[in-house]
Write a structure and sequence with these properties.
Layout (H helix, E strand, L loop, with lengths): L2 H5 L13 H8 L7 E4 L5 H8 L4 E5 L2 H14 L3 E5 L12 E7 L7 H14 E12 L14 H7 L4 E11 L8 E10 L1
Parallel strand pairs: 1-2, 1-4, 2-3, 4-5
Antiparallel strand pairs: 5-7, 6-7
């Protein structure tokens, strides 16, 4: 069984039962606009928060157990959001584009070759002028647990062709494992 599918049979440490504070701040600041795709949406907390704020939101995750929980959460809360079991390397199969794409904890799980494939797929679903917001573990977070750490240079290299990096800022990735959260990068990247 896939690592993520198995993780969602219980409660994974990254599933905090609410949206990440960084996503809430982006929405409250008016940075998230239009239709939204949440890649690696997990149980849908970020997507459902944005749906409650009036966005047409789709969430995709490769773990069927996570999508099942996300759909149940949407139904229980009376929120309209579309959740699909989808591999992030086949985003083009969604058949539509979005104004905003959010990523809370997906990019830092990808290998170097997977990142290139993901960025190509991302460009298929993000409208020109649309913005991708990525929350990923930073190399400033001590190692020994959790996902791979990401450097600013790695982000810049992955998005060097056809993209404009608006900002890479220090942020906090919240989890159930570390009450204070983990050091992360929050990136704002626009498709040219």
């Amino acid at each position: 069984m896939d690592f993520f599918e198995e993780a969602y049979r219980g409660t994974p440490p990254w599933d905090i039962g609410r949206p990440q504070r960084e996503i809430v701040h982006l929405e409250e600041a008016g940075k998230i606009s239009g239709d939204v795709l949440d890649v690696g949406c997990g149980t849908g907390e970020n997507a459902l928060f944005l749906s409650s704020r009036g966005h047409d939101v789709w969430g995709v995750d490769s773990a069927p157990a996570a999508i099942e929980i996300a759909r149940k959460n949407a139904e229980e809360r009376g929120l309209a959001a579309t959740f699909l079991v989808k591999d992030t390397f086949n985003l083009h199969e969604i058949g539509r584009t979005f104004d905003t794409v959010i990523d809370s904890g997906l990019f830092h799980t990808l290998s170097d070759p997977e990142r290139l494939c993901f960025v190509r797929n991302l460009s298929e679903v993000l409208k020109p002028g649309g913005t991708y917001f990525m929350l990923a573990f930073s190399e400033l977070e001590p190692g020994g647990y959790g996902p791979r750490r990401i450097t600013k240079k790695e982000i810049q290299a992955a998005f060097s062709d056809g993209w404009r990096i608006n900002k890479i800022q220090s942020a906090v990735f919240e989890s159930r494992t570390r009450p204070e959260g983990s050091r992360a990068w929050l990136s704002s990247i626009t498709k040219l």
